[in-house]
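Troubleshooting log. The previous run stalled partway through. Resubmitting the same four chains, unchanged.
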Amino acid sequence: MTLQIGVIGTGAIGQDHIRRLTQTLSGAKVIAVNDIDAQRARGTIAKYELDAKLHEDPHSLIADAGVQAVLVTSWGPTHEAFVLAAIAQGKPVFCEKPLAETAAGCLRIADAEQASGRRLVQVGFMRQYDKGYRALREVIRNGGIGEPLMLHCAHRNPTVGESYTASMAITDTLIHELDVLRWLLDDDYISAQVVYPRRTRNAHAGLADPQIVLLETARGVRIDVEVFVNCQYGYDIQCAVIGETGTASLPEPSSVLLRSEARVSSRILTDWKERFIDAYDFELQAFVDGVKGRGLSGPTAWDGYAAAVAADSCLLAQKSGKVETIAMQKRPAFYAPD
Amino acid sequence: MTLQIGVIGTGAIGQDHIRRLTQTLSGAKVIAVNDIDAQRARGTIAKYELDAKLHEDPHSLIADAGVQAVLVTSWGPTHEAFVLAAIAQGKPVFCEKPLAETAAGCLRIADAEQASGRRLVQVGFMRQYDKGYRALREVIRNGGIGEPLMLHCAHRNPTVGESYTASMAITDTLIHELDVLRWLLDDDYISAQVVYPRRTRNAHAGLADPQIVLLETARGVRIDVEVFVNCQYGYDIQCAVIGETGTASLPEPSSVLLRSEARVSSRILTDWKERFIDAYDFELQAFVDGVKGRGLSGPTAWDGYAAAVAADSCLLAQKSGKVETIAMQKRPAFYAPD
Amino acid sequence: MTLQIGVIGTGAIGQDHIRRLTQTLSGAKVIAVNDIDAQRARGTIAKYELDAKLHEDPHSLIADAGVQAVLVTSWGPTHEAFVLAAIAQGKPVFCEKPLAETAAGCLRIADAEQASGRRLVQVGFMRQYDKGYRALREVIRNGGIGEPLMLHCAHRNPTVGESYTASMAITDTLIHELDVLRWLLDDDYISAQVVYPRRTRNAHAGLADPQIVLLETARGVRIDVEVFVNCQYGYDIQCAVIGETGTASLPEPSSVLLRSEARVSSRILTDWKERFIDAYDFELQAFVDGVKGRGLSGPTAWDGYAAAVAADSCLLAQKSGKVETIAMQKRPAFYAPD
Amino acid sequence: MTLQIGVIGTGAIGQDHIRRLTQTLSGAKVIAVNDIDAQRARGTIAKYELDAKLHEDPHSLIADAGVQAVLVTSWGPTHEAFVLAAIAQGKPVFCEKPLAETAAGCLRIADAEQASGRRLVQVGFMRQYDKGYRALREVIRNGGIGEPLMLHCAHRNPTVGESYTASMAITDTLIHELDVLRWLLDDDYISAQVVYPRRTRNAHAGLADPQIVLLETARGVRIDVEVFVNCQYGYDIQCAVIGETGTASLPEPSSVLLRSEARVSSRILTDWKERFIDAYDFELQAFVDGVKGRGLSGPTAWDGYAAAVAADSCLLAQKSGKVETIAMQKRPAFYAPD
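Second attempt completed without errors. Output:
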């Protein structure tokens, strides 16, 4: 049986997921497409030679009897409404980040999903599907380093454009750590602080870069995340977990070891798309397999909510220079971790 | 369009490829199955819930009008006949190692394929699809280390069973290096020598383990391959290319870096199946995409022939203790590298 | 010419320096020894077969016309008086940490040294003589990573005894980073903050371990130092400097790379004495050579003062939980860096 | 007590040892100097401000009653005579490589030393004093990898001058491996073979570079040593020991890890003098300490003989292209390893 999928939003990420479903993954088919720009939707259908219906109205796509699952890859502010509509139709929905514009919006989705009685929502936090983070989590869970006490992390991009603002350091960059570290530790954040190191001269005039975000979890784990989006040298994601008896670090991507010109060296990626390319495949295959099989198991609406709450406090901390509380509602049993 | 595939042979590797085509890869479907043991073929159809016809006769499967491409994963001695039959039908065929029992058999296949006027055969040398070897080849081709002069390689297994014989060190173990190193260098072997180091006490009584195979290529590159199949500590594949201006080494598999018990360490795989698991997916997806698109581009019948000739000389060298010539026929233009 | 040295204090570190001067280094000789415990001084003379005079009174040793330079390795609270006495005699003096019990005491020494008109004091901050830190500093100075923006450091000991207190995390452990990082950056600290991660269960009941110390420098560099003295797995010193165009890390000690039991691994030291053993030799040889040659060039009385001021603020920050100012006096031209 | 040393030969290596004894090491003093060029000897005395007597005749230096030990750093062909003269005087002698021009000459020295009844000769094979090789040997001896079965080694220089000949690849380059590998394994060589890979275009016209030397030991260990003296990229010494249960590799020199320009990299040395600089200090300090204390323990006259015999067979193998026997006399009990 092939899962019949409707896609709302055919921008870059929407097209990428359509390509994935059509040319790489197994067991799914795009049979309906919508975009606010009908011309772009039509072009996408042609480009990927889809046997798919063009819906002018996203809600008609969601209601289409042939559509068994929905992908929401439209503009962020529209996510909440489309996800709620899919839940109302009882249809599984994969929604790109952010799940909703506000923490309240995320909660509304979580409430609707709980009311529906089963998991229908998977959020596009792909790092949970990265083999490296999975291996790191396994080491922690197997007791390889004892109880985690501290995390030292870095999220470095070679450069960002003029349109990148300080708050995007939280909502576009740190957001990935906010999701994946919580999942890594099975823990929740309780406070955030932001400190500003000396500015690099390679950032555009309006941007304080780098920033260091200090987080504290309910169990007392202290996390520092260096966010440095003009580091010049590469796209470099680091995560070291310091436990009671040892430390464990996120694997570096595999690379040829070169001895040349008086250096032993290996390559650092420069394009973020390459870094987690497999994770994008895995998350979407997991969605397809989950819908067809034993239910969804990936990032939940609650994960979307948790990331939103933490991001809000980090934004506050960016401005206040103080330690800000991260106050989440109590997690419903429905979202208890496996 | 979904490629309709018929599979001959439903042993371990056959079932693995069926699983791959059915649950992981994109664009193909198993619609016909044969095995010398019809019961096993039937069980496989049930296990993977295939919508496939059971053929009692492999040649009827090959002739089946619905079958657009054939997978040969049966017992080695049967490969040649099935591949030739597929060629006779003008059908693309993916054949597991060995392509034929003898170099002469490989040549017969190459002749038939040439007579057919287009590439129809892909041999299951999956290492050419390994990302690590691909990256290594790219470094060489881009001139990153100058012209290659020497290769130092190792093929280590943790342990082998009593049924493993000295000649299997060539035909089952070294065979992978024989294929991939030739492809890595775009070069041909001209001689082989085998030397026997001190025996490990961890091999069974009848087995000289380790062995070192010394190869020479037409361009004068010297290769040493350590074959050590009872190394105890892991499944470890190493390949260092020494060029005129630098050296390049096959990437180690990614792994969590652990600091624990006074050691910095990372994991070595112990199961060979894990080591090249992605390469198996890539080779078969490439076959499917090639058949559906711009033609086959993977390991050719000529590659199968070249590996067979080299293996024959290595077997001779194992016994003679001398430098043995590796004499291949001239490569037809049909098989000129891309 | 052999430099004639008098040593005050023959405890562990005193004896170690005597052994060094007598059996390892070049150009110096211990000719006078004092200890508050004359018996211990006598035993030391015998043990190292010194041709040295036993002084019952430390000040008589300092005044001894044969003594050309003084080593102060006595109990901390006595350092200031002995160093001042040596300066009064116009004799070069090597003093172990701490230079004085208080920042004010360090300043008194600096004042006396300036009044003497030439450098007479070298403080025993041996990390400035570690080859690794020296190489790191060279990379920074050569512009290899652009201007430094952040430092991520760790100081980990496998375990500490019951007598180790929280304040010792600053005065005995962090003190090394306080000295060496300032030297590495040619910069001064302006604030300190201490945060407490989840406690390890492997520390004794009274000790909050680990701690994270956050420092800020005059140029805006942000430093985080993880102090973790019961990390179990080894003695591990880490220092990564993040600059505008790249990062540079303190070299790991050289170690045999082992492939064994499904791990690639190298050794981590467990004994702090091994980690900087060469640096101890280099600092003392530099003192000897400096006295005999072109003057002292190692850690100055001002460095001793700077470390004392920073440590005082860190101790405050440990208790207040707040960001504490580090306010140093203006550096005299006498102590301008080379 | 200071050991009084006489030095014969004040060329580059002679001056380097004099500097070492005078400015770096402990417990020795150069009190007599000879060189075939008296002017050069005089200049050396001035340069290092030695309180030393100039001997016009080397044999008068050896006979000088004040001279307690002799350093032979003169032209190779003179070594044998000077070492024999020192033995005749009952004086300990440190002799640079080669101990003698021929294996027969080495034997004459060994015979004379045995006749003297105690160890008087230390040969300047400094690699036995390298910390890396020492650590590697310890791992092997402690059973960390089981019994050694194979060694894969490389000796790479960035470049050599026009005067470097093919035979120097053995006598000047490989000679270090011939000594140190034998010591590493506590084993003796029994055969040698040389194969010639594709020539690099970066060697001068007359030189076949690289070469691969294959050695076999009495216990059956197989060794391959790649000798590549125009590798361009650095001075790189590699040694991997493959044992029954694991592998161990010579540590890489410590280096700052840099992340810059899309590469993680560390430095490779380019100057051979830097690579083993500490080992030179250790070997000579060991000689001084041995003479003054419990006797010599470093490389023996027998080690000099063994290296000479092996080198002779390698030179033969270079020309014959065949496997050549390495036939040593039986080791006298006098030279039994510790």
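Takeaways: DSSP finds ten helices and 15 strands in chain A. Chain A has two domains: 3-123, 131-272+304-335.
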